[in-house]
Specification:
The complex is a heterodimer of chains A (about 170) and B (about 130).
Chain A lengths: L3 E7 L5 H8 L8 E3 L8 E3 L3 E7 L2 E7 L7 H8 L4 E7 L5 H14 L7 E6 L8 H5 L2 H5 L2 E4 L5 H15 L3
Chain B lengths: L2 H15 L4 E8 L4 E4 L4 H24 L7 E5 L3 E8 L3 E8 L4 H22 L2
Antiparallel strand pairs in B: 1-2, 1-5, 3-4, 4-5
Helix pairs in contact in B: 1-3
Classes of the chains: A alpha/beta (about 170), B alpha+beta (about 130).
Chain lengths: ~170, ~130
């Protein structure tokens, strides 16, 4: 059987690199560098994150994208031929909804990634966040599932990938 | 003189040091933000700056995975142009667009001079 390809995407600071690290069974390949912008963290992905895992005896390749719009060519390159996506959304970012819609529009425009996706709402336990409002967003309505997730934990990382498995209908 | 002006002058000096062989160059931050450029299409420069960050980021990681050591440079060779890319310390990146048949050895020497001069300037602007 062909390995499945999963895109892990979302706007900057949502937790994409962390999720790849959490669920990958191999040491992930990352391309983090110091960030010169104030994005709520010190490091940012400029290329891709790559990891691999096994699901129901199938090999799954995990590709994490950069978050900033200036890297949108990487969204399209990495989005080619994907079987599904995990879209992470930071619950505390004011522009999370519009950034995520824009990102998904860009992927769909290239017909790269008109595939099932699940939404993971991250940082929802932090003060001043509004995870419930994000569940009403247009992209969330199109998602196969919407979960709140602490992507640092194996349990929540696995919950996201298994929601995608359910969307694929793999037994 | 503002840092970006000083960096811009470095790019012009680079161009003068290798007459007729350099079509443009840019300095960006390691996370892909344009700092200064002399490309013929300035609008495109912001997009290119992000791509330089991606290319150097992946190159550096590939070198490490292969046990090849510390990255010196990355080059793209195409039919009409060459693009040479260099890290500037831990903060920045330099990309130089040259003629396809340019003297690469000479451009490497001159570009490394720019890297050396630019490094303290970039470090001072990023506390």
């Amino acid at each position: 059987m062909l390995p499945l390809k999963v895109l892990i995407t979302g706007a900057v600071g949502a937790g994409k690199t962390t999720l790849v690290s959490t669920i990958s069974e191999i040491e992930p390949l990352t391309t983090d560098v110091d960030s010169q912008e104030a994005i709520g963290k010190n490091q940012t992905t400029v290329g891709l994150d790559y990891g691999r895992m096994t699901l129901k005896e199938r090999s799954v390749r995990l590709f994490g994208t950069p978050g900033q719009e200036r890297f949108d060519y990487m969204w399209q390159m990495l989005g080619e031929g994907v079987d599904g996506m995990i879209v992470l959304v930071h619950a505390g970012h004011d522009t999370a909804e519009t950034d995520t819609e824009h990102l998904l529009d860009t992927l769909r425009a290239k017909e790269a990634a008109d595939v099932p996706f699940v939404v993971g709402i991250t940082h929802s336990d932090e003060a001043g966040t509004h995870p419930e409002a994000l569940r009403e967003a247009s992209f969330a309505q199109r998602a196969a599932a919407v979960l709140t997730a602490d992507v640092r934990t194996e349990r929540d990382g696995q919950a996201l990938i298994h929601a995608l498995v359910d969307a694929w209908g793999i037994q | 003189m503002a840092t970006s002006d000083a960096l811009h002058d470095l790019l012009y000096e680079l161009s003068d040091a290798v007459p007729g062989q350099i079509h443009g160059s840019l300095i960006a931050s390691r996370d892909g933000l344009l700092i200064t450029e002399t490309l013929s299409d300035s609008e495109e420069a912001e997009r290119i700056a992000a791509m330089v960050a991606t290319t150097l980021g992946v190159s550096r990681r590939m070198a490490r995975r292969l046990g090849a050591g510390v990255l010196n440079e990355t080059a793209i060779s195409a039919t009409e142009r060459r693009i040479q890319m260099y890290l500037i310390g831990s903060e920045g990146a330099l990309a130089v667009v040259t003629a396809a048949d340019a003297n690469v050895a000479l451009i490497n020497i001159q570009a490394r001079k720019v890297v050396k001069s630019a490094e303290p300037l970039l470090r001072d602007t990023n506390p």
